[in-house]
Amino acid sequence: MPFSKLCIADVIEWDISNWSRALKYWEENTSVDLSSAKALEIGSRNGGLSLWMALHGSRVLCSDIHGPSERAVPTHQKYNVSRLIDYKSIDALDIPYEEEFDVVLFKSVLGAIGKSNNVYAQFKAVRQIYKCLKKDGELFFAENLVASPIHRFLRARYVRWGTQWRYVTIEEMLQFLSVFTDIRHITVGFLGALGRTERQRKMLGVCDRFLLDCLVPARWRYIIAGVARK
Questions:
Q1: How far apart (Å, rounded) are the C-alpha atoms in residues 142 and 28?
Q2: Are 169 and 111 in contact (CB under 8 A)?
Q3: For 6-51, how does the pLDDT look when each residue is reduced to its tens digit (9 = 90+)?
Q4: 99: left (phi over 0), alpha (psi -120 to 50) or beta
Q5: To which H or E segment does residue 224 belong?
Q6: Which of 114, 119, 145, 147 is most exposed, with the fewest beta carbons within 10 Å of its own?
Q7: H helices of 60-118, where?
Q8: pTM, two decimal places
Q9: Helices marked H in the chain
Q10: Domains of the chain, start order
Q11: What is the rounded distance in angstroms from the CA atom of residue 5 to the CA atom of residue 70?
């Protein structure tokens, strides 16, 4: 499905060049018919991924622990997809559904769930997602990785939540997902996270896509994205 630049900005919001690569990967690797799927977005904040799913024709439950932000509804109305989206407060550690959804999706959520180094909470959230998926349902995930020593230093020094957020390693993410029958993933992004403005991040993201992703080891990239099938 083609998306305008404006739509991609409403879906991804930050470091669009790198994080939007998850969307293409999900489309290319899913076996779910998104035009008729029932989906749940976890940790939706402004509802970007709910918008993306609704634009494919999915019926979506847009959720966050205290409900989506005030920006979510107007954004969905702008694209005339509100009829396909419902809203709810859902704690990812206690999802009140079982075998309900064809797709569950999230972007940059596990780090906050695991704040103060709570790896068990991250593990539990993935198991809750697994529980609420139908048989052959899929998790679309995109998460922040521990990444390089440069990323770790800059987060600790300049990111307000950098010392609280629990960034995951590739190995940890795959272990969380081990209950799924099939897992496919990519790792992307290095310089894009270092830009101060979205224009800078776009230029750096181009460097990531066409140069550094071929040169930088996977463990130094800062995004892991993929599809896990139940």
A1: 15
A2: no
A3: 688 999 999 999 999 999 999 999 999 999 999 999 999 999 999 9
A4: left
A5: strand 223-229
A6: 119
A7: 72-78, 110-113
A8: 0.94
A9: 5-12, 16-19, 21-29, 48-55, 72-78, 110-113, 119-132, 149-158, 170-176, 198-207, 213-215
A10: 5-229 (3.40.50.150)
A11: 22
